[in-house]
Amino acid sequence: MQNLTDEQLKRQDFVDNGIFDLVKRLTPPTKEIKWDIEMIGDIRDTIQHWLVDRYKITDEMEFYP
Questions:
Q1: Which of 8, 26, 48, 53 could connect to 4 by a Cys-Cys bridge, CB 3.0–4.6 Å?
Q2: Mean pLDDT per segment of 10 residues, for the chain of length 65 residues?
């Protein structure tokens, strides 16, 4: 397995945190959502499908190394 660079790790954190922030914003204010990397991964996969596979806006390594 290849070691990731600091820049790649920062990108992963940026994407995962962005997804979690979005989920928190969409959650009703009376509810609290906890960090769940499985949920974040599922959402990330869907976003990747659209941005990388369908629209070809970026490649996989640039989106989420």
A1: 8
A2: 91 98 97 97 98 98 97
Report yes or no on 1 lying in a domain. no
- For the stretch 4-13, contacts whose Cβ atoms lie closer than 8 Å and that sit 24 or more positions apart, written own/partner, are 4/65, 8/65, 11/64, 11/65, 12/64, 12/65
Can you give the pLDDT at residue 2? Answer: 77
The helices-and-strands tally (H runs, E runs) of the chain is: 3, 0
How many structural domains comprise the chain?
1
Helix, coil or strand: residue 47: helix
- Residue 40 belongs to what domain range? 6-26+34-63
